[in-house]
Amino acid sequence: MAIHIRPAPETLPVTLADVQAAHARISAQIVRTPFFISHTLSELTGATVYLKFENLQFTAAYKERGALNTLLQLPERTSGVIAASAGNHAQGLAYHANRLGIPATIVMPTNTPTVKVTQTEGHGATVVLHGDTFDAAYAHARELEANGGLTFIHPFDDVRVIAGQGTVAIEMLEDVPAIDTFLTPIGGGGLISGMAVVAAAADHPIEVIGVEAELFPSMYNRIKGTDMPCAGDTLAEGIAVKEPGAITSKMVEALVDDIVLVSERSLEQAVSLLLQIEKTVVEGAGAAGLAALLQHPERFAGKTVGVVLCGGNIDTRLLANVLLRDLARSGRLARLRVRLQDQPGALFNVARIFEQQRVNILELAHQRIFTNLPAKGLSLEVECETRDKAHLDRLLAALRASDYDVSTIELA
Q1: Exposure of 74 by Cβ count < 10 A (0-12 exposed, 13-18 middle, 19+ buried)?
Q2: Is the Cβ–Cβ distance between 171 and 34 less than 8 Å?
Q3: 334: DSSP letter
Q4: End-to-end CA, the chain
Q5: Phi and psi of 311, rounded to 5°?
Q6: DSSP state at residue 383
Q7: Cβ(265)–Cβ(312) below 8 Å
Q8: Closest of 56, 262, 241 to residue 156, by C-alpha
């Protein structure tokens, strides 16, 4: 990577030299993840899109980088490390601490899904369940830190963690020097802070754009002086942070060019497209960069964009729901409500139209009681599978041409 060091503001706690040292320190112990162009997504969005597959790290997230860089700088006789996390930081820290023979304790809220507890324990960590919220788990972790002589490792507000996360950008520019835009998810801000340090020292201008979910615009509020609420059930739980870090906020304000917000629908579409087009599984946070390209195409048109797929830890049932909802929104899966007369042959006659239009019926449901139709009428709900929206429109036209009262049941 051809770079020259520009003088960084003295107030910034992480420099290019810190990130380069972190890369030299950790590169032999993490996966050098691929950074490939996506021709299909480039055509779809109008930008030249390169994807950094950090979901292919051993624990399926970039968080390993910052955790490992921190662990490798601890005193040799440390009595152990502790963190509060129910997500990727927990697994990345647990995995590398176990590899290095360092005892690790992870404090999680009591309502953490069992699968996350099991995965973290599987990496050799001691899991302590405490409190109903992350704040309660965090406070307990700090108590255990003080009482047990442990070293607390913050998921993002630590200069060693920030430097480790920034190594993603070093690899991206080594592989594709022509990148002129970094499009990076923001939770607490560790990843984008480290990447922005590298971008500021590049031999050509690189725009650094952060992405947050509309439901959790915490860094957006901090930088732009807004006061939007941070709450809700977002698909991007990995970046659902109510309070960004003090260190990272300072760095984002100094080095990041802009922050964009993305909707839940854009996040769902991005997760689905990455699976369909790139055959790769990402979590909601990992798809945030692509969601920004989909929702704000004019903002990135003509640019050469590096997108970090920062994690791939998504519940399989949730992933299935996202894929099915995307099929419904694209017209390939539909639920129709058809008004029928309650008499012999009524179902056969309507089913014949589905057969003529080559539409596959997946599920049927009759409703005779909870309806405002006359007593001799019934409501038939049909879940069906079509090739695309045009195919669905032809089915609806054929039903209406046969005098059926039909409507679609839309997703929210």
Answers
A1: middle
A2: no
A3: E
A4: 46
A5: -165, 155
A6: E
A7: no
A8: 241
Tokens of 277: 């087009």
Residues 268, 237: Cα–Cα separation, whole Å: 13
Which residues are bridge partners to 104 per DSSP? 81
CB 391 within 8 A of CB 359: yes
C-alpha pair distances (Å), 263 with each of 43, 174, 327, 373: 22, 32, 18, 38
Token pair listed for 268: 């769902």
Give the C-alpha separation, 175 to 168, whole Å. 11
Q: Quick one: tokens of 362?
A: 């997946």
Instruction: Show the DSSP H helices in 149-189 as ranges.
Output: 159-175
Rounded-to-integer distance, Cα 68 and Cα 102, Å = 11
The secondary element (H helix, E strand) that includes residue 316 is helix 316-329
Torsion of Cα atoms, 307 then 312 then 318 then 324, to 10°: 50
**What is the distance of C-alpha 257 from the center of its chain?**
21
Structure tokens at 135: 């704040």
In this structure, what token pair is assigned to residue 311? 């994690």
3-state helix, strand, coil in the chain (%, to 5): 45, 20, 35
DSSP string, 37-62: E-HHHHHHHSSEEEEE-GGGSTTSBT
Tens-level pLDDT at each residue, the chain (412 residues): 444 344 455 568 999 999 999 999 999 999 999 999 999 999 999 999 999 999 999 999 999 999 999 999 998 878 899 999 878 999 999 999 999 999 999 999 888 878 788 889 999 999 999 988 788 888 999 999 988 889 999 999 999 999 999 999 999 999 999 999 999 999 999 999 999 999 999 999 999 999 999 999 999 999 999 999 999 999 998 899 899 999 999 999 999 999 999 999 999 999 999 999 999 999 999 999 999 999 999 999 999 999 999 999 998 999 999 999 999 888 899 999 999 887 888 889 999 999 999 999 999 987 765 565 555 568 889 999 999 999 999 999 999 999 999 999 877 5
- Name 47's Cβ contacts closer than 8 Å, sequence gap at least 6: 181, 293, 297, 300, 301, 302, 303, 304, 305
- How many helical (H) and strand (E) elements, i.e. helices and strands, does the chain have? 16, 14
